[in-house]
Design a protein that fits this description.
CATH superfamily of the largest domain: Glycogen Phosphorylase B
CATH topology of the largest domain: Rossmann fold
Order of helices and strands: EHEEEEEHEHEHEHHHEHEHEHEHEEHHH
Number of helices: 14
Shape: globular
CATH class of the largest domain: Alpha Beta
């Protein structure tokens, strides 16, 4: 079986979707599936072509970002059409698109029609895109109700990565035939990482609050900084692990709140280094406004950390908010502050939440099971076609 995957981002680009796509391909390739990935050449120093896990072939085309985090092909470049023509003659059984909000999903639709192949769409979003600003958010909704709906309605099959995503697919496309296949978790890789000793020693007298993820619209990182400023405590430090276009604004905000020594920005880090720093934290906060299935929350659970997360999208499918962590409404930094204070003062509760979250995530998110489920979907799709 041979599949062609159109992915809006792929490693070495950093993010949850990238990690999911790479792990998905790594495990699926062990099930006798030949995989080719077609993805933007971002960052620009990424190789045009490479072979990754178990023969997974990655082809990158020249691209730019007219809006941050929204890659578009450089159609005027000969290199794009050279790579595109490679796909047209490639022997393929199924075309896969990922997340309706990105242009590569339209390219996947075009390619599937051109090659007369079935297209499976993998949806990761659970709501309309959330931005800082009314106009951008409104434009995002217009895009979804037109282009996004078109992409979903014209897929031969759809798989969602959470029940929240499946519900959104039904809302947007009126399709009610979307199964949920949870992605796996990088349990072995996370277990191999040890807490960063230098960081732990430097802040050993502090309660460490951590955020891990991209610093982009919709992640709500500024709500965490607001919450920390409201606490007015000198015995805490906040780690921001990740980079992105919001970083400068967040640093300015920290300065305005006189938190330069209490909010530490680590920028983009390799996976192992990021997890090593995350493991030094006492509490992990995910203040996002929208999520499909949040990678940062599953990673925090596997690091056995107490979690405070906004109750959006598929977050509740990772932690229930009962005995495994705290769920709060989005856009309410005062409630985040209240829950941080509660966990700071209740170390036994932190430990209980961390242990239960780890146990639940370890059991629920298994890559081998996920790969087998996808292979079954592929087989059914080919039979129906």
């Amino acid at each position: 079986m041979k599949i062609l995957v159109f992915s809006p981002f792929y490693p070495p680009h950093i993010g949850g979707l990238e990690t999911h796509s790479d792990e998905f391909n790594k495990h699926l390739s062990t099930k006798g599936v030949e995989i080719t990935v077609f993805t933007p050449q971002l960052p620009k120093e990424a190789p045009e072509q490479e072979i990754r896990h178990n023969g997974v072939r990655v082809i990158r085309y020249p691209a730019f970002e007219p809006l941050h985090n929204y890659p578009m092909p450089m159609f005027w470049k000969k290199a794009f059409w050279r790579e595109w023509n490679t796909l047209i003659v490639l022997n393929t059984d199924i075309v896969i698109s990922r997340t309706r909000f990105f242009f590569p999903s339209l390219m996947a639709l075009w390619c599937a029609l051109r090659k007369n192949l079935p297209r499976l769409h993998s949806e990761h979003g659970s709501d309309f895109a959330q931005f800082n600003g009314y106009i951008k958010t409104a434009l995002g909704k217009i895009y979804d109700w037109t282009v996004g709906r078109f992409i979903l309605r014209h897929a031969d099959s759809i798989v969602a990565n959470s029940q929240a995503s499946a519900n959104f697919v039904q809302k947007l496309s009126k399709r009610n035939d979307t199964p949920v296949i949870y992605r796996g978790a990088n349990i072995d890789a996370i277990n191999q990482c040890i807490p960063d000793e230098q960081v732990a020693e430097k802040y050993r007298e502090k309660t460490i609050i951590a955020f891990i993820g991209r610093l982009i619209d919709g992640k709500g990182t500024h709500d965490l900084i607001t919450a920390v400023s409201q606490l007015q405590r000198t015995d805490i430090v906040t780690f921001i692990i990740g980079g992105g276009p919001e970083e400068a604004r967040l640093k300015k905000m920290s300065t305005e709140h006189q938190l330069d020594n209490q909010v530490i920005f680590f920028g983009n880090l390799p996976f192992e280094k990021a997890i090593s720093i995350l493991k030094t934290a006492h509490i992990v906060v995910n203040p996002s406004y929208t999520e499909g299935l949040p990678t940062s929350v599953t990673e925090a659970a596997l690091c056995q950390k107490a979690i405070i997360a906004t109750d959006v999208g598929g977050t509740r499918e990772v932690i229930s908010g009962q005995d495994d962590g705290v769920l709060v409404p989005s856009r309410h930094p005062e409630i985040i502050a209240e829950k941080i204070l509660y966990l700071m003062e209740n170390s036994e509760q932190r430990t209980l939440f961390a242990q239960n979250a780890f146990r639940n995530v370890e059991k629920k998110f298994d890559w081998n099971h996920s790969a087998e489920q996808y292979r079954t979907v592929f087989t059914t799709l080919l039979k129906d076609k």
